[in-house]
Write a structure and sequence with these properties.
This protein is mainly α. Helix content is 73%, strand content 2%. The protein is built from 25 helices and two strands. Strand 1 and strand 2 (69-73) form a beta hairpin.
């Protein structure tokens, strides 16, 4: 197969975005079909690359300052990148198609699809890059394009603020990521993944250095994959259009951090200390987000915290030194989480943009396709056998059971929380009586929106089976105690389902009211106070420094010294020729004295 095909697939969405901006911007319909066409072609090409084991991409030289610095423009085409390529383009293409219905009346439709194509280009760049410099550039492009998409309805203050929050929060993690890249380059002399792996012997003898570099690289994943304590941007990203929520929370942006960690697993696994930190950050994130989700009332925020929690599972698996288990859950999660968000979008658009679950109810009979597909995705998410999430989540639970019992117990508790808050969501939204006029008269979405739901329901149901695991991934190894883990996981899942059903059946209001969880553990308030306090402290210090150091010291001091010196010299300017001659003669005598008697 042509070595230029991977480059064509990478650049096609970029050409689509440029064509929409420069040519079809005033024709929303043409812009939409250009973007959708590019996504479909990318998916077909990705399938061809995946099916061809001998596909290779031509490499170009970009920066050549050897032996100091060398950066190629090269693409990685191994089973990991090929799997992600199919996943990103497949889910992305379905979201493109879904957007045709969801955004059909939006006045910024052309801008939306241009940003969508730019996002696809950026994400494919992360998947295919073979060196740190390329992946960092595409990493930042993903940040820019997600900023544009989250803030698509920028005329709303909440959307503009959410876009800024996502962009700024990610920059914090990206700064650490950049420092980690610089440390790796300084130690190995290369930024190419394959070359770094071969030079790891240069730094493994310095455990502290390896740990610092690995944790700084991990900072990038903390920001992009919304891990504690930089998780706060992801729920607010719900201010963007619902298809964007599906795109960001499924197989693309938030998965980039997990994929990157697996890609550089040779570095992460070189430091046991870094692995421990990563595993516990993932565990804390999973439990924390699960708890917060139990008290949210916005349907998209519940799913957003669910995503944060599931990403915690994946990061946990990376920290337990199993990139295979992390990718397995990423693979299945992409389908059922995209399905959940698109199902939520179908509900929201048919209820005239109502997102409060307590303003819904009784929708199972009115939105039959949406209900059935949403239920399939829910069963996959909570780990109900034989749906896909059962296999991938239990693989991580079995890994934790084998390697770290405290983490296993917390992961099992998170599985209980997942079942509880998802049954709360399903029961309140789809059962009981309608709680608003819109819910009472809701109707099913058009086929352009329900079609992608049906398509995603299939892999959500079967993607965890061994055939698919062998086809797309290296099957995770069997873990010790794996015969006990499914029993425990199924038991806590059933417990969560029963508790959710008992507590929320036929309810018109939440019987549980925990302000601490409803206010999201006050993370936003604490961060706002911290930023405000530091800004005021810096402003006070800046005022003091400017007034007394710069103004009074440097500026006035320099001018005062100049004025004083001038006044002193003015004493010698008496305007008397005899005085000048006397001073001149005195100077000559002094010069002779220092010359002769020095």
């Amino acid at each position: 197969m042509s070595s230029l095909l991977p480059w064509f697939l990478l650049l096609l969405p970029l050409f689509s975005a440029a064509f929409i901006v420069l040519v079809t911007n005033r024709s929303p319909t043409i812009s939409a079909f250009v973007s959708v066409g590019a996504a479909l072609i990318s998916f077909v090409g990705s399938c061809l690359i995946f099916a061809s084991p001998d596909t290779a991409a031509v490499q170009f030289t970009w920066i050549d300052l050897r032996p100091l610095f060398y950066v190629p423009l090269g693409l990685t085409l191994d089973p990991l990148s090929k799997t992600m390529l199919v996943l990103v383009t497949g889910v992305g293409a379905l979201i493109h198609i879904y957007s045709l219905g969801y955004m059909r009346h939006d006045p910024g439709k052309s801008r939306y699809f241009a940003s969508l194509s730019l996002f696809m280009f950026s994400m494919l760049g992360i998947v295919l890059a073979n060196n740190f410099v390329m992946i960092f550039i595409f990493w930042e492009l993903v940040g820019v394009s997600s900023y544009l998409l989250i803030g698509h309805w920028f005329e709303r203050d909440s959307a503009a603020d959410a876009a800024n929050k996502a962009f700024i929060t990610n920059r914090l993690g990206d700064f650490g990521f950049m420092l980690g890249i610089l440390m790796i380059w300084a130690a190995t002399g290369s930024v190419v993944f394959g070359e770094i792996a071969g030079e790891m012997g240069k730094i493994t003898g310095h455990p502290g250095y390896v740990t610092a570099a690995a944790l700084l690289i991990f900072c990038g994943a903390v920001g992009k994959s919304a891990q504690f304590p930089l998780h706060v941007w992801l729920p607010d990203a719900m201010e963007g259009p619902t298809p964007i929520s599906a795109l960001i929370h499924a197989a693309t942006m938030v998965a980039a951090g997990v994929y990157m960690l697996v890609r550089v697993g040779f570095l992460i696994q070189a430091s046991p200390e870094a692995l421990t930190v990563i595993a516990w950050i993932g565990t804390i994130t999973a439990v924390m987000a699960g708890l917060i989700a139990t008290q949210q009332n916005d349907i998209k925020r519940i799913l957003a915290y669910s995503t944060v929690s599931q990403l915690g599972y994946m990061i946990m698996a990376v920290g337990l030194a199993s990139g295979e288990d992390a990718m397995f859950h990423l693979f299945t999660h992409a389908f059922f989480k995209a399905l959940l968000f698109l199902g939520a979008g179908s509900i929201i658009i048919m209820l005239h943009h109502e997102q409060n679950i307590w303003r819904m109810g009784g929708l199972a009979g009115r939105l039959k396709i949406t209900f059935v597909t949403f239920l399939v995705a829910t069963l996959a998410l909570i780990g109900c056998p034989p749906f896909s999430g059962f296999f991938s989540k239990d693989a991580i639970l079995a890994l934790a059971y084998e390697k770290n019992m405290p983490i296993f117990i917390l992961a099992l508790f998170t599985a209980f929380l997942t079942a509880f808050y998802m049954l709360r969501l399903v029961v309140v939204v789809f059962f009981g009586t309608p709680r608003s006029e819109h819910a009472e008269h809701g109707k099913e979405s058009p086929f352009v929106m329900t079609g992608p739901l049906l398509a995603l329901a299939i892999p959500s149901s079967i993607a965890g089976f061994g055939f698919f695991a062998k086809l797309f991934l290296n099957v995770p190894p069997a873990h010790e105690g794996s015969h006990i883990v499914p029993i425990l996981a199924t038991a806590v899942m059933i417990s969560g389902v029963l508790l959710g059903f008992i507590l929320y059946r036929n309810r018109d209001a939440d019987p549980i009211d925990l302000a601490l969880l409803r206010r999201r553990l006050y993370f936003d308030e604490v961060y706002a106070w911290l930023i405000r306090s530091t800004q005021e402290a810096l402003a006070s210090f800046s005022g003091f420094f400017d007034r007394w150091i710069i103004d009074a010291g440097a500026v006035r001091g320099a001018s005062g010294a100049t004025w004083g010196l001038g006044s002193l010299l003015r004493l010698f300017q008496v305007g008397n020729l005899q005085a000048y001659s006397f001073l001149f003669g005195l100077g000559i005598i002094g010069l002779i004295y220092f010359t002769v008697f020095r």
